[in-house]
Amino acid sequence: MNVRRTEWIRGLALASMLPAAAQAQIDLTALDRDMAGPRTQVLVLGTTHLSQMPKTFKPESLDALLDRLAAFKPQIVTIEAISGEQCDLAARHPSVYGADYCADTTAAKAATGLDVPAAIAETNKTLAAWPARPEPAQRRRLAALFLAANERASAYVQWLQLPAAERRAGDGLDAALVAMLEQIATRNNENYQIGARLAARLGLQRVHSVDDHTGDNIQIAEAETKAFGQAVEQAWKAGRAELDRAEAQEEKLAQERDLLPLYRFLNRPDNLRLRAEVNVGATMRAASAQHYPQIWAAGWEIRNLRMVANIRQTFRERPGVRVLSIVGSSHKPWFDAWLGQMQGVEIVDAERVLK
User: Is there a contact between 231 and 177 (Cβ–Cβ < 8 Å)?
Assistant: First the structure.
């Protein structure tokens, strides 16, 4: 055999045995350094889940926060909610995702005559031809379509933009759907009280549901479910002293009449780092014969990856827009890191916006 060829083969074999870290890496983050046109500005707002707020919570306590977010002037708002499309997928595969995955759309189907896929198609068609100055009847009709498409927060966006006298049945909204929208107004949920209210204030037509549970529906035998949960909870107990102090401060701030200081606290880098360390760092260090904590962390990463991809999809055809993503604060470090690696995307400093 040719000596030079023999040396080449031996070298190739040795190279294949080198650790992956020693192999050359390609930096993809700089490919957009000479991009044409403006970059997309993405602001990730870490939030508490308002359903867990004390009984003293009032929606007006969010007014100062909404003022800061409105000043950012987002053109797209995303929320931590399951899309109607994924709800329909889950309904068709209950053995995979469970039977109680999303809200029931029976009432909206009865009022509109549309199932979820048909309602999604009609919603997209309606938005594509949406006028600059829609009539109240058009908003009522779109609200009904959003409810039938299992996009309740977007239906509420339309409801809020109706004059008070026009918030009534008609044009696809029957008494049951009107009652549903009126009930939504009373719910302590950040998707409605922050996302929908802000979108309506800015004249947007919808919010985008980007949550995704198709990757964290971990396949564990029913007999092992309890042991799985105990292993993960045990891992989370490690290093909780600092997090306990931070959560005590959060509880104190949650009692205030103005919740802007709470949101400043939630979005501080040191608090986000602490939550990420306890949430995932501890699970990666936890010993388990079945590797349950590491399995949980894998599902957590898949969920975040798919949520980030869903956010990217909202501005795929709109480079250069301003995007606000409202999500539980535990997700924010992953959103910031992965969205920030995307081409033409710049992460906006939440601390600066909330200052």
Answer: no
Question: What angle (nearest 5°) sits at the alpha carbon of residue 222, between those of residues 220 and 225?
Answer: 65
How many C-beta atoms surround the C-beta of residue 14 within 10 A? 9
Measured CA to CA, the distance from residue 228 to residue 14 in angstroms comes to 41
Q: Which residue has the higher pLDDT, 34 or 22?
A: 34
Name all contacts of 94-101 with Cβ < 8 Å and 24+ positions apart: 96/217, 97/213, 97/214, 97/217, 98/217, 101/213
Paired residues of 326 in beta bridges: 45
From CA 295, how far away is CA 263, in angstroms rounded?
31
Q: Region 219-223: what's the mean pLDDT?
A: 88
**Cα-Cα end-to-end distance for the chain:** 71
Claim: this prediction has a pTM higher than 0.90: yes
- What gap in Å lies between CA 351 and CA 329, rounded to an integer? 13
- Judged against a pLDDT cut of 70, whether residue 17 lies above it is answered with no
CB atoms within 10 A of CB 300: 19
Identify which of 336, 340, 355 has the alpha carbon closest to the alpha carbon of residue 45.
336
Work out the average pLDDT over 292-312. 97
**145 touches 126 (CB < 8 A):** yes
Residue of higher predicted confidence among 15 and 322: 322
